[in-house]
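Worked example 2:
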Amino acid sequence: MTRFLLPALTASALLTSHAAMGAESRDLTGLVRPFFEQHCNSCHGTKKQKGDLRVDNLIVDLQSPKIMGHWEEIMSRINSGDMPPEDEARPKPEEISKVADWILLQLREAETVRQSSAGERVAFRKLTRDEYGNTVRDLLGVNFDVKAPSGLPEDPDWKGFERIGSVLTLSPAHIEKYLSAADAILDEALSLRPEPKREVIRWEAFDMRWKGFKEEYQARGIADKVRIEIVPRNYTTDSWNIEIKTTGDYLLRLKLSGLRPAGGRAPRLKVYLSSINTTLIEQDIDAPEDKPITVEARVHLVAGKYPVRIINSVPGPNPEGRRSRHSGTPNAFTNTRSRVPWQLKLTDDDFKPIQPTLIVDTVEWDGPIVDSWPTQAHQKMYVSKDAREILTRFATRAWRRPVHAKEIERLMQPVNKSLELGDSFEVAVKNGLIGVMCAKSFLYLEEGGAAKAAPTLSDYELASRLSYFLWSSMPDEHLLDLAKQGKLHDAKTLRAEVQRMLADPKAQEFADSFPRQWLQLRKVGMFPPDKELYPDYDENLEQSMVAETLGFFKEVLKRNGSLREFLDSDWSMLNERLAMHYGIEGVRGDQLQHVVLKPEDHRGGLLTQASVLSLTSDGTRHRPVHRGVWMLESIIGRPPPPPPANVPALTTPDAKAKKTTVREKLELHRSDPNCTACHNKIDPLGIAFDNYDAIGRWRTVETIKDGTGDNPALDPSGVLPDGRAFADSVALKKILLDDQDKFAA
C-alpha cells in the first residue's frame, strides 16, 4: 500500500484545499448570499448593522484574522440557533447545515494559510519522548526507558496527534529531566566503571514459603515436587523482591506450565513490577503440567529494588479457602494425590483442570548482559584522544547535520574545565557529550528558520523528516550519506529510500504509532466498562482490541493493500481472546492470526472493530453521537463544529414509562431546532452501529435498565444529509465505499 496510502496521507490537505478554493466563489454567491439575503441582511445589511456586523458585502479573506473572525461568529450564531432571532422566519435544517459546512471549510482553509505563513511557521519541533528513546537506542545502543519515573514527562497531544510542534513545549521540568537522562545514558553507554559481573538469581518454590518449609517437605521426601500454583485472579505477594545492582539489560526466564480446562481459556501470565507500574512479560501459557515450557524476555532495568508480582490475569473464580489476592499463593505438587482438599478443587475427579491455572517451577534473573566490554559505544567514542574530534564526530551524528567550529568551541568549554579540575580524559569528554545531548539541535527537529518563508528543506532536514516519520528515530548512516551527497531531492532516489525504510524493521514504529494517533486508540479503556454490565471485559480483551486494529493496519501496509479495506474487508487479525469476544470459533493462541470473516460474524474493516466501538462509548452504554463525531473526525475528515453552550443532556425517562432506546432519545433531542443541523450529520453515522454495545459485542436488542416492558429491538437504519438511506452498518459501509474519492482525500 506504500504507493497509495503514504501519498494519500501527505496530499490530503492539498486536495482538500484545492477543492475548497474551486468551490469558494460559487458557493458564496449561490448558497451563502441568498441565505444572508433571506435571513440576515435586514439586521446586518446596508441600512442596519447590529453588533457592528455587516454580512451583505462580507468577503472571504483567508489572511485576515478580523474577517475570518466574523465568519466564525456567524457560524457559531447559526449553529446555536441564536440567529436568526426567534421572531424571524427560521431556516430549514438542511439550509443551516449547508451554510455552516461551507463556513467551516473556509475557516479550516484560513487556519492552514495562517500556519503556513512565515510568521507562524514552526521551525523547531521537539522530539516526543518515544522519539527520544528510539534516538538514544540508535545513537548509543542504550535502551533508555522514557516512561519510567526516571524517564521523561508525558507528551501532550492535539486531537490524538503527538507531533504538533506548537503543542510540544519545553518547560524547566523537561530541562532537568534531559540533563539527568543524558548523564545516566552516557554512564551506561560509555562504561566508565569496572565491568559489571553477570550473575543468575534463581527463585524456586522454596523461596516463596515460610521458614522451615523446605526442611518439612524434605523430611516427607517430596521436596523436589514443590511448585508455585497461581489460580485465576491471583498473584504472588509484593514481598518477593528483586534487587538490581547495576543498570542494564537482563534476561528474565520462567519455567512454568499452564493448565487449560476443556473448552476454556488458557491461563495468562503477567510479570509486573508494582513500584514502577511496569509489565515485563504478558502472554497466555498453554503447557501440560508434566511438560513445562520456558518463557524468556530481555528487559532493561535501572539499579534498585523492585517488588515482583507473578499474576494469572485470566478472569475466573477464586478457589475456595484462599480468596484474598494478598494472602500469597498455594504450593502445588506434581503428585496431585498429595493435594489438600481445597487444592483438589482445581481439578476434577480425573485430575483434569477445571480452571485456568499457572504452575511455576523457577524464575531466573540473568544479567546484566554485556555484549562487549568496553561497550561498543565506548570503543567507537574513544577511538581518538582528540576531544574536538570526538565531539565533532558525535555531534554530527547526534544533531543529524554538519556542525560548525563555533558550536564545537562551546562544547569544549566544559571539557577543558573538567580537565583543569583533574578529571580523566574520558570523564571530561563525557561532560561535552552531555552538552551535545542537551542541545536544541539534538532535542529538536530543525527545519530552516522562522524568517525563511516557505522554505525548501535541505537534504539533511529531509533525511530527518523521513526517518522520524517512518522510524520515529534518527536517520541511519546510509540516509545521512545520501544527504551529504545532495541526492535526496532526486525523485527516484527519494522513492527508493522510502521503499527501503518501509522494509526496515524500524518501520514498525510508524505502523504502531500512526494508527494509535489517527484513530485515537489511546482512548480505549479511558472509561473502563462497568463490571456489573460487562463482566467479561478484562485487561487481556482490551489489549487484544487494540492489537487487532494495529495488526490490521500493519497487514494492509505490508501487503500494499487498498484504502477500501479500512472501510470494509472480509478478514481481520484476531487472537483467541478477541475471537471468543466476537463469537468466532477456530482461533487458538495469544498471537494475532489472519482470519477470514463470514457475513454472520458482523465484522470487517475498522468501523466494526471492538477498539473503535469501545473508545466511542462511555463504559456503561454505546454513544451514537460519539461514534458519529469520531467518524466525521477520523474517517471522513470533516469534524463538526463545537456544540453550542449549555446543551441539555438527553432526557431520562420515567421509570414507569415504556423503555426508551438511545435512538428515540436522540430523535427527541434532534427535534430542537438548535440541535438539528449538526445532529442530522452526526447521528446517522453513529446509529448505524447500534447493533454493537459499549465493548463492541454484536446484539439485536438494546438492554435498558429503566422503564417497563421488554428490551426493544434495535433499529440501525438512517438517512444521510444528502438523502441516501441505509438499513444498517453494512449498507452504510457500501455508501462510504461509493464515496471512496472523499475518503482517500
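The chain has five domains: 5-116, 124-195+371-446, 199-367, 456-503, 522-744. The first strand starts at residue 124 and ends at 126.
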